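Dear support,

We are seeing what looks like truncated structure output for some complexes. This example has two components. We would appreciate it if you could run it in full and send us the complete token output so we can diff it against ours.
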Amino acid sequence: MLLTAVEGLAYGGLYALLGLGFFLTYGVLRRIDLAYGTVVMTSVYLGAMMVGGLGLPWVGVLALTLVVGIPLSLLVAYLAFVLVRQDARFSMAATLGIWMVLEELMLQSPGRGRGQAIVNPLQDLSWWPWGLQIRIDHMVILGLALAVAGLLTRFLTRSRTGLAIRVSAYDASVAALLGISHARMMVLATVIASAVGCVAGWSFAMAQSGIDLHFGMWATVKGLVILVLGGTQSIALIVTAAIGLGVAERVGSELIGSGYRDLVGYGLILALLAVEPFLRPGETRFGDSR
Amino acid sequence: MSELVAIIPMFSISLVLALSCYLVLKSGEISFGQQAFFGVGAYAGGILTAMFDWPLVAALAVSAVAAAAVAGVIGFSLSRISGFRFTLMTLVLGEFAKEVFVKIEWRREVNGQAAGPEGPLGFSGIEYYYSHGIQHLAQGLIAASVAAGCLVAVWVYGRTGPGRRLVAVASDATLAASVSIDPVRTRLQAFAMAGAVAGIGGGLFAHQATYIEAANFSLMVGVHAVAYTLLGGLANVLGPVAGTAFDVVFLEGLRVVGSYRMVVFGSLIVVMLILRPRGLLGTRTRTVP
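Here is the complete output from our reference environment:
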């Protein structure tokens, strides 16, 4: 059970990275990007395909993922959040269309949507404290998530650029009065959110020794759920919620059987979402995210 | 001709699901979970005809009631939230329902053979049409008639008190409440009706497909239905018809873009939202001088 909980910590680290990407996208930029997970999946998928095809070293997957992922995220942001000028729902619907396009393009790519293998150089390395086998790559992922969370917190709260992003996302006209370029800040925040997502996708693919098309939707759903559990006010709460979810899912599946893991997981989240309006009616009723 | 006959049931079933999404979109929200009610209707209808030998009409009626009941229960919470939380809750609902469908296992002996859903193996043997000698053309007519019935019901709903109140709530819930419209109740009615419509679509689908499994009710199914409605526009009930026809008849039926159908369809949604956000049949916004 203890070992399962430790494994859950690693998944919590992955969830935290995804949650941080969504925190930047929704919590800071106020955008609901349903293509986020698919963009990450596409980037990692193409990165893995190119590395496999060209015979590059394993670290090339991360580099190529970032090279593909960041411009792709900027394109999605431009199409769905700049060119679509209606309210947030229309932008969200546009990300839906982009999601369909990307997923289908991966199916039509030379990889034909089949899983792409990724070399995990840390796969066979383990640490044995008190007789427990703890995979080094899992700990690296957790450490990476905590480091990214720390850096993001510091950047958004202590740096002038981070503050400028927050002001710009809150009110573009106020930002303009302060001499802040709204467009530049939005691009910068999109790049950071994309980079965090790419690192999350790459970490996940490494831990699983591969990636397939299901990752896109899975990442989007998990990221959004963590956002709801952790809220949009604090990075620390996002990380706590993500790690809590990772551990709860792993331990839960150990207790009730892996066949029921998703059923129980989605059931709990649904119950939480269903009960929330009755617990905090003023915060959720007819006023969120418009 | 044979292609047309083959495409009618597919178009009709997709249209019924799109009409369900249309009702929710009329409330000002986007639901990615209508496939859950579609699935409830499919399993309910399939169980009644395959396991208990019910007539199709009665099975479809129960499909509608069962899906409306589920929508009504979840609607207690859904009708109190909006925006991102609403969309997320429907998305999670869809995924949860899919997991539930995987677990449905109920076998019963019918005419010396076991019938009923087999959990992850799906639910086969929903052969009402074949056991009653209903041919392809008749199947298409049944599906088209049911879809037309749903279309009329949704149109009537929009022209009467509940539909008008729903539009008022979608425009401004606080203002609507100030003129004695209960936003929660109005939305709850709309969700229950949307659930019923999706349930009927599911019932039709189960009998058309003869075999259903959880994968038939994936998120992508719900996403498509929303996309049809957005593509056609929300101005009136013909919007979902136009959106569904464009994808099912033009892209899928005529196969004009081959295997790149989803690329074209997805791109078209984005282009439409940029150039014509009110959809193919949407009205222009009038500016009061």
